[in-house]
Design goal:
The structure is a single chain. The chain is mainly alpha-helical. It has one domain (about 15-100, about 120-220): Arp2/3 complex 21 kDa subunit ARPC3, CATH 1.10.1760. The chain has helices spanning about 20-40, 55-70, 75-100, 110-115, 120-145, 155-175, 185-205, 205-220; strands spanning about 40-45, 50. Helix 2 (about 55-70) packs parallel to helix 8. The radius of gyration is 19 Å and the shape is globular. The two termini are about 20 Å apart.
Length: about 240
């Protein structure tokens, strides 16, 4: 299997374009948008309170791990930016829909607004936290892959989640709720949410292995980011 970072086969011809990258990218963005919508509801699990989005949001990190492991940091960087733009567009569009006056006789404006009128501060926190956490997750996984020579995928996926989800969780709660909720409640929410997301990904490790191995076999790609520019603001696939 070729190192795609070299981008050319031995005969000098460009390697084939990934066939399944777009499918995985779409699944990633869909999970992200759905988790943001579901986050408007609070749920209680074993006495702990979470946003309903936590049931799906860790899946975006699983997809992020698969993208980075198979296609490399550079391509994953483009997908992360697509997710950010999609989230911002969704938030802006829903704000517009809530603001537009309802039709005469439509009695659900209040209920609709209570669900979809996302607080700007919460949206900002969600977008910034997602952006920073996903990039850190992808960076850690890509670097560890080079250091470990492609071995111990389980270690890379878990450690990247440990760092990425920590940054994501802290940024979101601080930006969205600092000064609004008591500090003790913020710490409790951060700790319980963080532990849940890390355990979620750890338990999904066998599933991640299955996806990664299948994608590598189907695509004939296994990227090592030994010469990649890791700037999150570089928009090319190199």
């Amino acid at each position: 299997m070729k190192n795609e970072s070299e981008s050319q086969a031995e005969d000098g011809k460009p390697t084939k374009e990934p066939q399944l990258l777009l499918v995985i990218a779409i699944a990633f963005v869909v999970c992200l948008l759905l988790s943001n919508l579901a986050a408007q509801k609070l749920i209680q699990v074993f006495g702990y309170t979470f946003t309903a989005g936590i049931l799906l949001f860790p899946v975006t990190y699983i997809f992020g791990d698969c993208l980075t492991e198979v296609y490399g940091y550079a391509r994953t960087r483009s997908v992360i930016w697509c997710g950010l733009v999609a989230s911002a567009f969704m938030a802006g569009f829903m704000a517009l829909v809530v603001w537009i006056s309802p039709a005469d006789g439509w009695p659900f404006q209040s209920s609709f607004s209570s669900v979809y009128a996302m607080v700007p501060r919460t949206v900002l926190g969600s977008i910034i936290a997602y952006w920073a956490g996903e990039f850190l997750n992808s960076y850690v996984l890509a670097k560890l892959k080079v250091i470990n020579g492609g071995r111990r995928l389980w270690l890379r996926t878990i450690l990247s989640t440990v760092f990425g989800q920590l940054l994501d969780t802290v940024l979101f709660l601080v930006i969205a709720f600092a000064g609004v909720l008591p500090t003790s409640l913020l710490i409790q929410a951060a700790w319980s949410g963080y532990i849940f997301k890390v355990l979620y990904e750890a338990l999904a490790t066998p599933f991640t292995y299955l996806i990664v191995n299948w994608l590598k076999h189907k695509e004939g790609i296994d990227v090592y980011d030994s010469q990649t520019n890791f700037s999150p603001f570089k928009f090319t696939s190199k």
